[in-house]
């Protein structure tokens, strides 16, 4: 609801409460009774600024007319209604003074409400007293005091509803809230529907204090309004502990309702103050909890940062060690290559008889020396290639390469091993060129390495199949065997450096564990990828994908 709809609805509700309160006027009273004049502050608060003067005037006219219809003199009706509107404006200005909109979060905010209520009550009381003097009503002082207390009680109740921040959460769950509401309503009805002594209404105050401790401020204020309505209803019927409660003293009729107003003022101030204190305590507790959580989080973050820093330092040290190791391997490998090459060369000269005829035993020993020297030279070459790959020094020379020629060259290189291993080879290579951009020598090494591994891990009478074809934007090389296969647990580490599968160890198959690592580096250097699948005792298949 927007515009003038909400304030007009509030005004109608206020007038209905006024009608309800009129019956509480004792004979000879001025007719003001328990009229909730402070509700005009809420009416004006919910009115848009441009419409406020018009709504204020309408409220004054409607209130004066109602009071006149209920038996109050015309002069006193106008004075009471007009001063009520003025008091509402004054009270709103006080609670929304230099400190900004009222938040009802501290005792200072409550003091502002009490100050505004007393100023508004003073304005209404003085105006009503002057009007009573003009029309010649008896007991002007009693009327002034009664109007002051009535307006003060009304403003103390309704002004907090004009504050901000009423949506603060409640501590109580729905079951507790329902229980508290039921107890409050039943207790209020029970106390104010019987002519008991004046001490019993404070049972209601205890239940209201329960709300102040556990419920939100908005729900607490609503309960105060509900209590006022119940008290007003029964008091208007001349029922309840405060009807005629003059403690055997003769009081002017306009002061007979002061006890009700004092009860309402006491309840409102006490309960709102308790709610503010409870909310502040909860806020402080939450701040302490947040501060403690922040401290714990900061400690944990510091621990994490320290651990990360330690890991970073360790990683830097590992990188440095790795760099030194690579440099060492590269240097040693270069230094070893020349003497190993000379050893191989001299053993070949010995085998050829360049230094005289060898005996069978000498010839066999020379052959063994040559074979082991060549194995050692292959290891050194692998180490040098690995070092170049790790230091990003292995550059790929880009030129058109026919993979058909590369695969055929690999076939020629592997033929001697096929005869020794008693393994057959099947080739499925297209008759037309399959051209990619790359370096022929390195691609030939990929093919030779894969075919050599296939032969090495295939038992006698097994078969190795090599296929080459082009599919879409990829040239695909497939090398398959019917060999021992690779256990599934080894597949993830198959391309790791120096890794040798459990099969190679069980079968005592020689190898450095560097070949497949180098193969993957060369393939990825060409922008391709390599895949493998294997089944133990069935065989292994490698696929090399190279971009066309």
TrEMBL record:
<dbReference type="Pfam" id="PF02518">
    <property type="entry name" value="HATPase_c"/>
</dbReference>
<keyword id="KW-0418">Kinase</keyword>
<feature type="transmembrane region" description="Helical">
    <location>
        <begin position="143"/>
        <end position="166"/>
    </location>
</feature>
<dbReference type="InterPro" id="IPR036890">
    <property type="entry name" value="HATPase_C_sf"/>
</dbReference>
<keyword id="KW-0812">Transmembrane</keyword>
<keyword id="KW-0902">Two-component regulatory system</keyword>
<dbReference type="InterPro" id="IPR050736">
    <property type="entry name" value="Sensor_HK_Regulatory"/>
</dbReference>
<feature type="transmembrane region" description="Helical">
    <location>
        <begin position="200"/>
        <end position="218"/>
    </location>
</feature>
<keyword id="KW-0597">Phosphoprotein</keyword>
<dbReference type="InterPro" id="IPR036097">
    <property type="entry name" value="HisK_dim/P_sf"/>
</dbReference>
<dbReference type="Pfam" id="PF00512">
    <property type="entry name" value="HisKA"/>
</dbReference>
<feature type="transmembrane region" description="Helical">
    <location>
        <begin position="178"/>
        <end position="194"/>
    </location>
</feature>
<feature type="transmembrane region" description="Helical">
    <location>
        <begin position="257"/>
        <end position="277"/>
    </location>
</feature>
<dbReference type="InterPro" id="IPR005467">
    <property type="entry name" value="His_kinase_dom"/>
</dbReference>
<protein>
    <recommendedName>
        <fullName>histidine kinase</fullName>
        <ecNumber>2.7.13.3</ecNumber>
    </recommendedName>
</protein>
<feature type="domain" description="Histidine kinase">
    <location>
        <begin position="331"/>
        <end position="548"/>
    </location>
</feature>
<dbReference type="InterPro" id="IPR003661">
    <property type="entry name" value="HisK_dim/P_dom"/>
</dbReference>
<feature type="transmembrane region" description="Helical">
    <location>
        <begin position="225"/>
        <end position="245"/>
    </location>
</feature>
<feature type="transmembrane region" description="Helical">
    <location>
        <begin position="75"/>
        <end position="95"/>
    </location>
</feature>
<feature type="transmembrane region" description="Helical">
    <location>
        <begin position="115"/>
        <end position="137"/>
    </location>
</feature>
<dbReference type="InterPro" id="IPR003594">
    <property type="entry name" value="HATPase_dom"/>
</dbReference>
<keyword id="KW-0472">Membrane</keyword>
<dbReference type="InterPro" id="IPR004358">
    <property type="entry name" value="Sig_transdc_His_kin-like_C"/>
</dbReference>
<keyword id="KW-0808">Transferase</keyword>
<keyword id="KW-1133">Transmembrane helix</keyword>
């Amino acid at each position: 609801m927007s515009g003038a709809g909400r304030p007009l609805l509030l005004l109608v509700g206020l007038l209905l409460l006024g009608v309800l309160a009129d019956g509480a006027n004792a004979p000879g009273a001025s007719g003001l009774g328990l009229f909730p004049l402070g509700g005009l502050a809420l009416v004006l608060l919910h009115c848009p600024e441009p419409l406020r003067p018009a709504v204020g005037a309408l409220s004054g006219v409607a209130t004066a007319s109602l009071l006149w219809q209920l038996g109050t003199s015309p002069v006193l009706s106008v004075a009471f209604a007009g001063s009520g509107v003025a008091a509402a404006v004054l009270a709103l200005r006080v609670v929304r003074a230099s400190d900004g909109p009222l938040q009802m979060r501290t005792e200072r905010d409550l003091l502002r409400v009490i100050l505004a209520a007393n100023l508004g009550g003073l304005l209404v009381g003085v105006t009503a007293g002057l009007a009573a003097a003009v029309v010649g009503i008896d007991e002007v002082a009693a009327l002034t005091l009664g109007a002051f207390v009535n307006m003060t009680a009304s403003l103390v109740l309704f002004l907090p509803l004009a504050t901000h921040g009423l949506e603060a959460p409640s501590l109580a769950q729905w079951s507790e809230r329902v229980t508290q509401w039921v107890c409050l309503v039943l207790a209020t009805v029970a106390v104010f529907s019987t002519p008991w002594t004046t001490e019993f209404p404070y049972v209601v105050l205890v239940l209201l204090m329960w709300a102040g401790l556990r419920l939100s401020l908005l729900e607490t204020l609503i309960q105060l309004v509900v209590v006022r309505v119940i008290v007003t209803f029964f008091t208007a019927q001349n029922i309840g502990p405060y009807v005629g409660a003059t403690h055997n003293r003769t009081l002017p009729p306009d002061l007979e309702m002061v006890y009700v107003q004092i009860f309402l003022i006491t309840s409102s101030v006490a309960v709102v103050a308790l709610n503010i204190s409870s909310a502040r305590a909860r806020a402080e507790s939450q701040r302490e909890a947040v501060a403690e959580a922040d401290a714990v989080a900061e400690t944990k973050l510091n621990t994490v940062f320290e651990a990360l820093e330690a890991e970073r330092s360790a990683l830097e040290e590992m990188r440095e060690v790795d760099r030194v190791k690579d440099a060492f391997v590269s240097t040693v490998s270069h230094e070893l290559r020349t003497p190993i090459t000379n050893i191989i060369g001299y053993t070949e000269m010995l085998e050829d008889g360049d230094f005289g005829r060898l005996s069978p035993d000498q010839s066999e020993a020379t052959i063994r020396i040559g074979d082991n020297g060549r194995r050692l030279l292959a290891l050194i070459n692998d180490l040098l290639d690995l070092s170049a790959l790790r230091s990003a020094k292995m550059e790929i020379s880009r030129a058109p390469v026919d993979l058909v020629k590369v695969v055929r060259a690999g076939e020629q290189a592997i033929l001697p091993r096929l005869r020794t291993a008693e393994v057959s080879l099947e080739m499925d290579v297209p008759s037309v060129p399959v051209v990619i951009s790359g370096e022929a020598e390195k691609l030939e090494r990929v093919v030779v390495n894969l075919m050599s591994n296939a032969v090495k891990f295939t038992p006698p009478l097994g078969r190795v199949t090599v296929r080459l074809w082009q599919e879409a934007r990829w040239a695909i090389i497939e090398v398959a065997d019917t060999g021992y296969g690779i256990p599934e647990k080894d597949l993830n580490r198959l391309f790791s450096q120096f890794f040798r599968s459990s099969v190679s160890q069980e079968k005592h198959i020689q190898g450095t564990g560097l070949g497949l690592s180098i193969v993957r580096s060369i393939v990825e250097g060409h922008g391709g990828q390599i895949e493998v699948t294997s089944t133990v005792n069935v065989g292994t298949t490698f696929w090399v994908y190279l971009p066309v």
